[in-house]
Design a protein that fits this description.
The protein is mainly α and 59 residues long. It has a domain of 40 residues. It is 88% helix and 0% strand. The protein has two helices and no strands. The relative contact order is 0.06.
Length: 59
């Protein structure tokens, strides 16, 4: 049981060393993720539309 207690004590000590991001950093990261997701969705949508249009021309 001592090993489990030691594990949790060391885990708490390590978590105290972590530099957590501030609110502005989190908001900035969220903006980057949303923008890149939207951009990838638009590009994939355009590629899909082009492929479907090409298939309709062929068949």
């Amino acid at each position: 049981m001592g090993k489990v207690t030691n594990f949790f004590k060391e885990s708490v000590a390590e978590l105290k060393k972590v530099v957590w991001p501030g609110f502005d950093d989190v908001v900035s990261s969220i903006k980057v993720v949303l923008l890149s997701t939207l951009l990838v969705a638009v590009v994939l949508g355009l590629l899909d539309w082009l492929c479907v249009s090409g298939m309709n021309l062929i068949f």
